[in-house]
C-alpha cells in the first residue's frame, strides 16, 4: 500500500475514533438512586434506545417505557436549526454519556449545544420545569448597563415571540448591535412538549 494511502487511512481512523464533545451540562438526581441490575435500569436502557432511534426523524420525541413503578419517561430534542444528521449524532452521544455519568439515577438530564436528553421515573412530559438549567455569561463589564438591559429585554421579547411560531419548533434566536464593536446574541430553545401558552 502506498505511503500516502496509509497516512490517509490512519487520519481517517483517528477522526472516526475521536471522542465526542463534552456536554454543556448534566444533572444526575442523587435522590433517585437505583440498582444497576434493576428492572427500572433495564427500562431506562430500552427507553434510551428508542429516543436514539426516533429523535432525529423530526428532532423531537417524548415517550415512556415500562409499567407501574418501573415506568420511565423520556424526552429527546434537538435544537430547531440542527440537521437530522447532526441531531442523530448528538442524541447518540447524549444517550451514551448520560448512562456513563448518571449510571444509578432514575432522573437525569444532559445538554449539548445541539440537543437535550432527559429521563425520569416520574411523569413530567408537558410540564414546565425550571428547576435546573445552564447559564452562560460574559465576564466583561458593560459600559452602559441601562442601555444594555433595555436592548437585552427587547431582544429577549423578539426571540420569545419566535419560539411559539409553528415552523420554529420552539427555537428563538437573534442579535442586536450595541455599538460598532459589540453585538449581543441570544438563543432560547423550549422543549416541544410544552404548549404555546407555556
Automatic annotation (TrEMBL):
The keyword Zinc does not apply. Residues 1-20 form the signal peptide. It holds the Pfam family Stress-antifung. GO terms for cellular component: extracellular region. Residues 22-124, 130-198 form the Gnk2-homologous domain. Keywords: Glycoprotein, Repeat, Secreted, Signal. InterPro entries: CRR_secretory_protein, GNK2, GNK2_sf. It comes from the Eukaryota. It is found in: Secreted. Its main location: secreted. Belongs to the cysteine-rich repeat secretory protein family. This is Cysteine-rich repeat secretory protein 55.
